[in-house]
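In the design runs reported in the main text, the only information available to the sequence generator was the tokenized backbone. The following block is the verbatim input for one such run; it is reproduced so that readers can re-run the procedure and compare outputs position by position.
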């Protein structure tokens, strides 16, 4: 086992999924290190929720890494986190996300570009019409935060706040005015200013519930095609948690 101590922070993003689905996703992940799980407790503002999770994480002296796992994310491949750690170990000053897809149609992969020019910011989805090679770790301009691995030193080097949703200053800097700038974009911009590289590991391919799962069609088959032959581990754990909850409910 590694000497690292991983803190997994679960955030509530949907009420549409069975509550045991998230627990099953967390449990089946291969971690290869000691792990602590913390829960954000249904804070409506996602920026404040992530901020609170970082603050809790920093109160654990031996904690070395924080992994955000939102409850609308599913990881059919149990080893996806191991590759992210391997890449991070080989590339200091890196922050690594798994690969999943945007909640809004046409559900572009969240491999985001982000440029700053003349005091304005512009971000986009350059891979929305491109085939993604599945065994690469790609450098990006911004990372989503739904399955995001961050070393402790990031929060020790960068002053708070780390996550702010709808920051008025960033909203005003958008070249294309629209929705509030997400807390993940806020974090990405700040991390880059302090010298960190942002990456998406395409080997860590995930599903995103929006309110239906979107992502790699092969992962869809892995997750849903057959209880007995496909993804037996995650299905077995899901059923175990469901049965426990059902018994308690009775």
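Verbatim output:
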């Amino acid at each position: 086992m590694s000497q690292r101590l991983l803190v997994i922070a679960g955030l509530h993003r949907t009420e549409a999924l069975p509550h045991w689905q998230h627990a099953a996703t967390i449990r089946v992940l291969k971690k290869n290190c000691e792990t602590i799980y913390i829960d954000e407790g249904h804070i409506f503002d996602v920026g404040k929720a992530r901020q609170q999770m970082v603050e809790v994480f920093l109160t654990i002296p031996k904690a070395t890494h924080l992994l955000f796992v939102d409850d609308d994310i599913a990881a059919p491949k149990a080893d996806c986190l191991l590759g992210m750690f391997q890449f991070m170990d080989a590339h200091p000053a890196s922050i690594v996300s798994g690969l999943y897809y945007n909640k809004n149609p046409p559900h572009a992969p969240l491999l985001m570009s982000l440029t700053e020019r003349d005091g304005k910011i512009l971000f986009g989805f350059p891979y929305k019409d491109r085939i993604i090679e599945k065994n690469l770790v790609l450098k990006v301009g911004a990372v989503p935060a739904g399955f995001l691995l961050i070393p402790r030193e990031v929060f020790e080097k960068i002053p708070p706040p780390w996550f702010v949703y709808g920051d008025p200053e960033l909203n005003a800097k958008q070249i294309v005015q629209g929705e509030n700038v997400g807390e993940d974009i806020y974090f990405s911009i700040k991390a880059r200013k302090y010298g960190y590289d942002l990456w998406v590991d395409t080997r860590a391919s995930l599903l995103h519930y929006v309110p239906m799962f979107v992502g790699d069609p092969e992962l869809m088959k892995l997750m849903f095609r057959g209880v007995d032959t496909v993804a037996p581990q995650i299905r077995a754990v899901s059923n175990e948690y469901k049965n426990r909850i059902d018994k308690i409910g009775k």
